[in-house]
Every structure is written in C-alpha cells, then in structure tokens.
TrEMBL record, chain A:
Protein name: Oligopeptide transport system permease protein
Statement: the UniProt record of this protein carries the keyword Transmembrane helix: yes
Homology family: Belongs to the binding-protein-dependent transport system permease family.
Taxonomic placement: Bacteria, Bacillati, Actinomycetota, Actinomycetes, Streptosporangiales
Keywords: Cell membrane, Membrane, Transmembrane, Transmembrane helix, Transport
Main subcellular location: membrane
Membrane topology type: Multi-pass membrane protein
Organism of derivation: Planomonospora venezuelensis
PANTHER family assigned to the protein according to its UniProt record, in alphabetical order: ABC TRANSPORTER PERMEASE PROTEIN (PTHR43386:SF6), OLIGOPEPTIDE TRANSPORT SYSTEM PERMEASE PROTEIN APPC (PTHR43386)
Cited Pfam families: BPD_transp_1, OppC_N
Domain ABC transmembrane type-1 span(s) in chain numbering: 137-327
Listed GO biological process terms: transmembrane transport
Residue ranges of the TM segments: 73-94, 141-164, 176-196, 202-220, 251-273, 309-330
Subcellular location: Cell membrane
InterPro entries per record: BP-dependent_transpt_permease, MetI-like, MetI-like_sf, OppC_N
Automatic annotation (TrEMBL), chain B:
One Pfam family of this chain: ABC_tran
Keyword terms of this UniProt record: ATP-binding, Nucleotide-binding, Transport
Annotated ABC transporter domain residues: 9-261
Protein's name in the database: Oligopeptide transport system ATP-binding protein
GO MF terms, alphabetically ordered: ATP binding; ATP hydrolysis activity
Source organism: Planomonospora venezuelensis
GO biological process entries: peptide transport; transmembrane transport
Length: 339, 338
C-alpha cells in the first residue's frame, strides 16, 4: 500500500532534537519508540503536535518485535533454534563424519562410551552418535516445519471460510473437523502410516497433518468470528467493500496472530510426534536417520550403552522446548493485554 | 442553520423485527424483537436531526437501517429519491457514496493493522471512480487536514492516536467519498467531555463548510441540543416526539420527553432544587413483547383506558406546535432552570 515515495517524508524526524533528517527507518526507530514511551506511560500516546517528530510507522508487528528482543526467554529460544536450523541445513559444520556412509561405522567400535574420538560415544553398529544426532536434525525439522505449514494453510483457510461465511459451510466444516478431532492421534497416525509401505518424512507429515488441521481450523474460525463482529468491519461494509476485501484486508490480518502462536508451539509438538512414530517403527525408516529411530535402536541395549539413547533424546527435548518457548514469547508479545 | 427545504433523506414507516427462533435443527420463529417499529421522518439538506432515547430503544438499529447495513422488515429509506432499503450490489454501492457512517467507539472502528492513510484512503480503493489514482494520497492528506490532524501522520497506526484523534480519523474516512448525508451513531459518547466538545464542534464546522446533513444519534440530551436543528425522541422502537430543538426541549409535549429532560443534570444548585424531577417507575418493557396501544402507558402517570386500546400516531396535536405521539399531550416546561 505504502510505496517508498509515500512513506519517505513521514519517517523523517523533524524538530530540533539533532536527529538528522534523513535517518533511515531502522536507525530512527529505537529513539522514536523511547520518546513515545516516555511521553505516555499509560499506553495512549500523547497528542502529537504539528512539527514534533513524526516518528516511525509502528505496527503491531514491529512493536511485537521490539518487545520480543527484550525477553530473555525469546533470546534463548531464538539462539537454540538458530543452532538447530544451522545443524539441519549444514550438518557438515558440526561433524566431519558422514553417517550415511556405511564405511564410517565399525562394528568393532560398538557401544563405546564418550571419548575424544567419539564425543557422544558410538551405537550398536559402531556408528558415531554425534554425527548421527546432528544429521538426524534435518528429518525432524522437515517433519515439524512441513506439517506446521500444511496445517496452517489448510486449517487456516478452511477456518477463514467457515468463520466468515457461517451458516451451512461453517456447520459442515465444523462437523468434519470434529470427526477428525475424535480420532486418537497416535492410533490415527499408526493407521494412516500402515497404508504406506515405507515411512518417509512426507508420509509422516501427511499422517500428522491429517490429524492436526482441525486445531488450527478451530482457532482460525474463532478468531475470524471475533474479528467479523468488530466495528471496523461494519465500517468497511458501510463503505461498500466486497466480501473478499473484508476477508483478506480486515479480518485475516487481525485473526492470523493467534494461529501463528499456536503454530509455533505445534511445531515442537510435531517434532516430538515424529520421534514417537519413528520409535514405534511406522515413521521414518532406516537407513534414513531420525532421533526417534535412534532412540528405538538404542533402547534394547540401554543398560550397556546409555549415550546413543540419551543424546538424541536430549536434542529432541531441547528442540521441542525451544519451539514451545518461542511460541510462548510470541504469544505474549502479540497480545497487547499482556504488555 | 442553513437547512433548505428539500428533503435529502426520506424515511417512511421503517420497521425492523429481529426474529426470535427456537430449536436447533428445525428453526421455528416464536416471536420477534421489534427494534424499530414504524418510524417516519424527513431529513432536509444541511440539517441536523438529533435522535435521542435510552439504551435499547432502537437508535442503533435505525442507524444500520439508514446505512443499508440491515434489511428492513418493511418500509423505505430514500436518499435523494433512491431507495437504499432494497438495493443490492452495484446500485447499493453507488447509493453508499451519498450516505456514510461515523461510529461510536473510536477504538474498535479503525482496523488496528492499517495505517491512517490506508484507512482514510480505503474508500477510494472501493470506489475507484471517486478519485483518480495519482490524486488519492493528496486527497487523504487534505482530509486529515480538514478534520484537524497532521497530514504527515498518514503512516501512523491507530493505536498511536488518542480517542479524540481516532474519532477524527473515522470522520475523515466518512467524508472521503463526499457524501451528502452522514449518520453519526453516538459519535462522542465514548469520549471525554472536553474531547466531546471538540468533536461536536468539528462536526458543526464541517456541516457549515461542506453542506452536510446529519442524522445525529445520541443518548446525551445536551450534546444533541448543541448540534441538532430538529430532535426526535425514541421510545421502544417508536418516535414519540419530533420537532425543532427549541420546541422539544422548551415545550415537550410527550410525558416521556418530559421525564427524559427532567433527568438531565443541572449544573446550577439552586435551579436543581427548584426544578421538578419526574422519576419513572419500572423498566422499559421488552421490545419482544411491547404493551398494547401506547408503548409508554405502562410507565406513564397519565395513562387511561384509551392508551391501552389505541396507539397514538405521531402528529400535530391541539395546543402544541410540533408532532407528538400522546393521547393527552400537554406542554410542560420541565427545564426552565436549564
């Protein structure tokens, strides 16, 4: 909407506070923000008078971003997630051993305790646990990210339609979602995965998404119904706005925050679910590497060698924790009532 | 003010009943809430018609009907001779260029995710014929200036403004299409008293400068008195009294209007003690099951047999100078101390 030529003059910091007139938006931001904060402790900004610093255009998102950066919980979660993402993208950075190369494992080295050569020890096949754990990150994250993307798209879109249209479409979609809600998730996933001969990242994603979309659907539907009744929607209708404009310009931007928050938390839950399904043998199959699979492989000889089970389990817990913490922080930052 | 003769908005026998239904699978109508039940009035060019009444009397439903946001059960709303009540699609959209809305709550009537420039400029996106594309930004800034805001604030978001400023943004949005009629639904009741005066004066100035006609709905009698040329008093979906503001305030004929006026706080202690206070008994009856005949009779001290049998129409009555809907109208000055 706002082309650069339009936003140009308004971000310029006027007044005689020494602010250079051409300060870029990012640089002017913190100062303008603090000025605004100081002026209005109650939250409602003081009346901006003519010629006073115009300030940067603040949105809920940029406010949330500023809020987030000051939270230790968010910073810890973000650093953890950053490391995990890097591990998934370029595992070679973290280990010189390629666990997909069968020659890297020597049966003679099986079940060694952690040492200088094998930091996390070795597993039943004599493979390096550190390398396998690092390489397993990619599959876990792929499942988590793709399942989240699919549930947000499918559940979000259907929720938008159901909440906005109401009536028969809403009744139909809601009943269908309740049917899926009624299926116990582990049992349902087992059933769906049993249909496929081999489990891969994508079959696991499908099984989880089929069972998880109703939650996103419900949250989106509720948020849309809440936004639909707002006065600004009535005002848009009074202007003669089309249904599509009201849906995408007025309702969706206001309803999407709650879905984003739940999606962040769910990401961690999906990663844990993938590990669970792989542990049960219906998820990702060997020779692919996944944390759940590693835990399953190490379980029978756990008493002899604990490290092949403990390290992937610790990585799994940390990853899930990081995403749930991120979800918590994002929820707090996006909810103005908690500010 | 400069109210010329021709009616720009004609409302005739407007009725809105909201059905009350029972049952989950098979819906059965068991009754109706008679929110607006037979209202007629004209709004002349350049005039302000104040509509007052207590909560639940159908004021806001009336506003929605005038805007074409609700479909009336019966009756007609004509703006410059064009019927809005039954209009659809492109026709409705065209009519809407002539009638716009200023809403009550400045905190919920602006989309928090849109900048002020986008909010005020949205009417031009919906009605691209109203302003050429290259001209829109200039027009938005001119509108902001018109309502007393800094035109450089187009890139700000609503939460960076105070309540009064937000209401100005809402007014600028309503003015964008250059409508001739503006329906103000309690435009100041969510604001502080000092800000109320600013906004009311802004509306009065805009009316003078742009020749607007207002339907000004409020429950605050003194605000309506300040801005309105004529005043209509509503009770349970009916108009009980309609006349010039000096007449309705100075010589109210309907007992409900008298009771309403006697409840207005008087800032002068002496006047407060001398003046008469009419205290109504009971609550307003349910609009789903209104009393027979005159709707006010259950709380009226003058009620007689005829009031339960015959509904008094809104008309000029002997001994009064403006229309009222009472079988026993009597001019009674309750606010001499005002």
């Amino acid at each position: 909407m706002s082309d650069p030529a339009v936003s140009g003059p308004a971000v310029r910091v006027g007044g005689g506070d020494g602010g250079s007139g051409t300060a870029p938006r990012g640089a002017a931001a913190p100062r303008a923000r603090h000025a605004r904060r100081a002026k209005s402790p109650g939250g409602s900004p003081a009346r901006p008078s003519r010629g006073a610093p115009a300030g940067r255009p603040a949105s809920l998102w940029s406010d949330a971003w500023h809020e987030l950066r000051r939270r230790p919980l968010f910073v810890a979660a973000a650093v953890l997630i950053g490391v995990i993402l890097l591990m998934a993208a370029v595992p070679q950075l973290f280990t010189s051993v390629d666990p997909y190369d069968a020659a890297s494992c020597r049966l003679g080295d099986a079940r060694q305790a952690p040492s200088a050569a094998h930091w996390f020890g070795t597993d039943n096949q004599g493979c390096d646990t550190l390398a396998r754990t690092v390489y397993g990150t990619r599959n876990s994250l792929l499942v988590g990210l793709s399942t989240t993307a699919v549930t947000v798209l499918v559940g979000g879109l259907l929720g938008l339609v159901a909440g906005f249209r109401g009536g028969l479409p809403d009744a139909l979609l809601s009943r269908v979602s309740e049917v899926f809600f009624a299926i116990p998730s582990v049992l349902g996933a087992l059933l769906i995965l049993a249909v496929f001969r081999t489990g891969t990242v994508w079959t696991v994603m499908l099984a989880l998404a089929v069972l998880a979309w109703p939650m996103t659907f419900r949250i989106m539907r509720a948020a849309v119904i809440a936004a639909r009744g707002q006065d600004y929607v009535v005002a848009a209708r009074a202007l003669g706005a089309s249904g599509r404009r009201i849906m995408f310009r007025h309702i969706l931007p206001n309803a999407v925050t709650s879905v984003i928050v739940v999606a962040t938390v769910n990401l961690g839950v999906f990663i844990a679910a993938e590990a669970g399904l792989s542990f049960l043998g219906v998820g990702i199959q060997s020779p692919e590497i996944s944390w759940g699979l590693m835990i399953a492989d190490a379980r029978p000889r756990f008493l002899e060698a604990a490290s092949p089970l403990l390290f992937p389990a610790a990585f799994l817990s940390l990853t899930v924790l990081a995403f749930i913490m991120l979800g918590d922080a994002v929820r707090d930052a996006l909810d103005p009532k908690l500010r | 003010m400069a109210a010329t003769g021709d009616a720009i908005l004609e409302v005739r026998d407007l009725v809105k009943h909201f059905p009350l239904t029972q049952g989950v699978v098979v819906r059965k109508q068991i009754g109706a809430v008679r929110a607006v039940d037979g209202i007629s009035f004209d709004l002349r060019r350049g005039e302000t018609l104040g509509i007052v009444g207590e909560s639940g009397c159908g004021k806001s439903t009336l506003a929605k009907l005038l805007m074409g946001l609700e479909r009336p059960t019966r009756g007609s709303v004509r703006i410059k001779g064009r019927e809005i009540a039954g209009a659809k699609g492109g026709e409705l959209k065209r009519i809407r260029r002539n009638i716009q809305l200023v809403m009550q709550d400045p905190y919920t009537s602006l989309n928090p995710r849109m900048t002020v420039g986008d909010i005020v400029g949205e009417p031009y996106e919906i009605h691209p014929e109203a302003a050429p594309k290259g001209d829109r930004r200039r027009r938005v800034q001119a509108l902001l200036e018109l309502v007393g805001l800094d035109p450089d604030h187009v890139n700000r978001y609503p939460h960076q403004f105070s309540g009064g400023q937000r209401q100005r943004i809402g007014i600028a949005r309503g003015l964008a299409l250059q409508p001739e009629v503006i329906v103000c639904d309690e435009p100041v009741s969510a604001l502080d008293v000092s800000i109320q005066a600013q906004v009311v004066n802004l509306l009065a100035r805009l009316q003078r400068d742009l020749g607007l006609s207002y339907v000004f709905i409020a429950h605050d009698l003194s605000v309506v008195r300040h801005i309105a040329d004529r005043v209509g008093v509503m009770y349970l979906g009916k108009m009980v009294e309609l006349g010039r503001d000096a007449e309705v305030y100075g010589q109210p004929a309907h007992p409900y209007t008298q009771a309403l006026l006697s409840a207005v706080p008087v800032p002068d202690p002496e006047g407060r003690e001398r003046r008469e206070r009419i205290v109504l008994r009971g609550d307003p009856p349910s609009p789903a099951n209104p009393p027979s005949g005159c709707r006010f009779r259950t709380r009226c001290w003058k009620a007689q047999e005829v009031c339960a049998q015959q509904e008094p129409p809104l008309q000029l009555r002997p001994g009064t100078w403006h229309e009222s809907a009472c079988h026993f109208p009597q001019i009674h000055d309750v606010i001499r101390a005002f």
